[in-house]
Automatic annotation (TrEMBL):
Key words of the record: Oxidoreductase, Pyruvate
InterPro entries in the record: Alpha-ketoacid_DH_E1_comp, DH_E1, PdhA/BkdA, THDP-binding
GO BP terms, alphabetized: branched-chain amino acid catabolic process; sulfur compound biosynthetic process
UniProt keyword Oxidoreductase, yes or no: yes
GO molecular function (one): oxidoreductase activity, acting on the aldehyde or oxo group of donors, disulfide as acceptor
Ribonucleoprotein among keywords: no
Domain Dehydrogenase E1 component: 42-336
Protein name: Pyruvate dehydrogenase (Acetyl-transferring) E1 component subunit alpha
TM annotation in the entry: none
């Protein structure tokens, strides 16, 4: 089966390889990964889940400012990011801690960012990862611009994978980014993590379209809906979309919109209480689709994983997260001047005035008084 055939389907034909019991569905082909790569996928998902639990706990203990949890979304993040080549770029929103980790951003950077340290955004030179974007959908036109620049420079072999949520699809930036990508045929994969909620706004209130995938039709390129809690379907689809972005066949448009249908098990952020807008029964329904046990069952049934492996992976994961927390917490706190200095390459006159005012307050009252929690 040619890889692009995954993309050649109706937008409401939800693609899946593993069912909820970890069984391969009839007629589906399992991606061509080595045994080590399959286990790596599982290991990264377990790492992401444990990291998430620890991060929420750090926030509750007052050791981190705020944090957007990702539990339930590990399959979508790890499966898609594993399809990237080193030269490809990843453009995240604010929830992609697992995807960015897979593409080279260390966990301690993510911790630093949510601890309020701007150096969390110091992406290592060799990781093609953009900084986290909090203004909803603002990263979408950036991703199109990056891909267009790459095309203008005649770079071949670079794909640009951009993540955003279901809520982002109501923003003008989403439309502008995808419309431009279609017209200029840029090497983009637009990956919508449709986790059913935009804080307290449900998916049905976000758009009257039956699917988000079908929006791609209006931009003139492929749009596919996939089971975002099936890491194998996510991997296979993203790989096919990246391949098409880089080497389109005759008459094919490079961009693709992927709608990965999934659920966030936790709160929108640690500042949110989902119990006021959704029923526990709904959460339970989606918990049955959890991507981690689903992949684990598949790996065990195909002889790629056993009890001993799981135990070793869990121990290693705990150690790795503990080390990342230790590294982040032993990093000196940034000077508050950086709030002003890091907005633009050079400070604008308004920021300079604000900084001067801030320095005056520090002088008058002292840091203890001003920076107290
Ligand atoms: C331009 C803009 N408007 C509003 C907000 C406040 N806000 C933060 S997250 C969010 C919901 C986004 O939902 P979605 O795109 O589905 O992503 P998810 O958080 O579910 O991953 C909103 C409205 C913002 N950050 N930026
Ligand atoms: Mg959402």
């Amino acid at each position: 089966m040619p890889v692009t055939s995954i993309l050649d389907r109706e937008p409401d034909d939800r693609f899946r390889i593993l069912d909820e019991d970890g069984e391969v569905v009839d007629g589906a082909s399992v991606p061509d990964l080595s045994d080590e790569e399959f286990v790596e996928m599982y290991r990264m998902m377990k790492l992401a889940r444990h990291f998430d639990q620890r991060a929420v706990s750090l926030q509750r203990q007052g050791r981190m400012g705020t944090y957007p949890p990702l539990s339930g979304q590990e399959g979508a993040q790890v499966g898609s990011a594993m399809a990237l080549d080193d030269d490809d770029w990843l453009i995240p929103s604010y929830r992609e801690h697992a995807a960015t980790l897979v593409h080279g951003l260390p966990l301690e950077q993510t911790l630093l960012l949510w601890m309020g340290n701007e150096h969390g955004n110091d992406v290592p030179e060799d990781a093609n990862v953009f900084t986290a974007a909090v203004p909803i959908a603002s990263q979408v036109p950036h991703a199109t611009g990056l891909a267009w620049a790459s095309k203008l420079k005649d770079e071949t072999g670079k794909g640009f994978l951009c993540y955003f949520g279901d809520g982002a699809t109501s923003e003008g930036d989403f439309h502008e980014g995808l419309n431009f990508a279609g017209v200029f045929d840029t090497p983009n994969v637009f990956f919508c993590n449709n986790n059913q909620w935009a804080i307290s706004v449900p998916r049905e209130r976000q758009t009257a379209s039956e699917t988000i995938a079908q929006k791609a039709t209006a931009y003139g390129f492929d749009g596919v809906q996939i089971d975002g809690m099936d890491p194998l379907a996510v991997y296979a689809t993203t790989e096919a979309a990246l391949e098409k972005a880089k080497n389109p066949g005759e008459g094919e448009r490079r961009p693709t919109l992927v709608e990965a249908v999934q659920y966030r098990f936790g709160a929108h952020t640690t500042a949110d209480d989902p119990s006021v807008y959704r029923e526990e029964a709904e959460v339970e329904k989606w918990r049955a689709k959890d991507p981690i046990p689903r992949l684990e069952k598949f790996l065990r049934a195909t002889g790629r994983l056993d009890d001993g492996d799981v135990e070793r992976i869990e121990e290693a994961v705990e150690e790795r997260v503990a080390d990342a927390i230790e590294a982040a917490e032993s990093t000196p706190r940034p000077d508050p001047r950086e709030m002003f200095e890091n907005v633009y390459e050079e400070m604008t006159p308004r920021l300079e005035r604000q900084l001067a005012e801030f320095e005056e307050l520090r002088e008058t009252y002292g840091d203890e008084e001003i920076l107290e929690d």
